[in-house]
Write a structure and sequence with these properties.
357 residues; alpha/beta; 7-stranded parallel beta sheet; 6-stranded mixed beta sheet; 15 strands; binds NADPH dihydro-nicotinamide-adenine-dinucleotide phosphate; binds aspartyl phosphate
């Protein structure tokens, strides 16, 4: 069956861009139609422009596409544009695309805090996309920007949101991350000499993103379509870079607001039972299971668990009581799939299923 929607990818040669290319190849609803990157890459076939770093080979549907510069005029035929642009350039380019009437789903941080921009992790707060429905009904063919989150935030908010839905407010969260090097991108990315036999206890801006984005994603949508932060939750983050290729591991502790604490088994069952909207809608890329709760004492591990449900699922392990908070557990998510490109695609699939693309 031929795909019905034309997709553009900005930053197509980058770490996230390459994942978009892989995940969109053979997609039932979206056709890889236009690939954008810098002037360094423009004019070349994709196969010649990209330094391909994926284990799978470059999809046939991408190899001969000629890379263009990221100008809205090159993408006017696209029904949706996925952005994996470097944040240094994403701001102006994505705004030009929006003002040209294009729909941009962005991995870049530039507009995540904008009051009129939905910040969405599709496994947990796809309801925030409803503002798009209202806008599309008001003004046909208007452009808009939707952001997905920082890749570590994506792994954190899914179990938090599932537990809030079941047991009520979580007042306090601490998270310590061990983040894969692909999170830093390829240009220039993390230097081998810096990370080999090492851990770098600093990722610029990362802790502030986790601490703030979590509250917008788990917050609410007001009558006027503005987004209210979850005010009764405090998040404290410490972020580290480790010598892992893909997959962000996070050590999480939580404290419930309610004095009536669930048991460890009830927490595990709530995570297992959690079902998200994209599963209900039947989105092609939706994970079979949103959250896998692992019982082995030493799991999840990035190399063994990051590709669960093609990298769209979240793995949680070591759920146990916390003597300082209430509970602690380990979360693993694939930073360039559900943490980036996959989230963008699942957002687009959700909009498509709702007739909004
Ligand atoms: N890596 C990850 O796990 C995640 C990354 N993100 C975010 O996604 C975005 C992309 O990250 P990542 O893929 O890692 O970055 P990379 O550095 O790997 O890729 C950057 C991309 O941007 C393009 N680019 C750079 N300058 C320009 C320009 N002037 N005009 C047009 N295109 C340009 C590059 O093209 P060229 O090759 O021609 O230079 C390349 O395709 C970033 O904003 C990042 O913060 C978000 C979540 C997770
Ligand atoms: N900063 C993350 C990748 C990411 O999500 O970036 P940003 O929040 O700027 O989109 C990392 O280095 O692993």
């Amino acid at each position: 069956m031929t795909a019905t929607k034309k997709a553009g990818v900005l930053g197509a040669t980058g770490s996230v861009g390459q994942k978009f290319i892989l995940l969109l190849a053979e997609h039932p609803d979206f056709e890889l139609y236009r690939l954008g990157a810098s002037s360094r890459s423009a004019g070349k076939s994709y196969a010649k422009a990209v330094k391909w770093r994926q284990t799978a080979t470059i999809p046939q549907s991408a190899t001969e596409l000629v890379v263009v510069e990221c100008k809205a005029s090159e993408f006017v035929d696209c029904d949706v544009v996925f952005s994996g642009l470097d944040s240094d350039v994403a701001g102006d380019i994505e705004m030009e695309f929006k003002e040209s009437g294009l729909v941009v789903i962005s991995n870049a941080k530039n507009y995540r805090r904008a009051p009129d921009v939905p910040l969405v992790v599709p496994l947990i707060n796809s309801s925030h996309l409803d503002v798009v429905a209202r806008r599309v009904k008001q003004e046909e063919k208007q452009g808009f920007i939707i952001c997905n989150s920082n890749c570590s935030t994506a792994g954190l908010v899914v179990p938090l949101g599932a537990l809030i839905a079941k047991f009520g407010d979580i007042s306090d969260v601490t998270v310590t991350t061990l983040q894969a090097i692909s999170g830093a991108g390829f240009s220039p990315g993390v230097l081998g000499f810096d990370i080999l036999d090492n851990v770098i206890p600093y990722i610029s801006g990362e802790e502030e993103k986790l601490e703030w984005e979590t509250k917008k994603i788990l917050g609410s949508v007001a009558e006027d379509d503005s987004f209210a932060l979850r005010s009764n939750m405090t998040v404290s983050a410490q972020c580290n870079r480790v010598a892992v290729s893909d997959g962000h591991l996070e050590c999480v502790s939580i404290k419930f607001a309610t004095p009536h604490k669930p048991s460890v088994e009830e927490v595990k069952q709530a995570l297992r039972d959690y079902v998200c909207e994209s599963q209900i809608l039947g989105c092609p890329s939706a994970p079979k299971q949103c959250i896998y709760v692992l019982e082995e004492a030493d799991r999840p591990q990035p190399r063994l668990d990051r590709n669960r449900d093609n990298g769209y699922a979240i793995s949680v392990g070591r759920v146990r009581e916390d003597p300082v908070f209430d509970f602690k557990f380990i979360v693993l998510s694939h930073n360039t799939v559900i943490g980036a490109a996959g989230s963008g695609i699942l957002i687009a699939e959700t909009l498509f299923k709702k007739g909004l693309l």
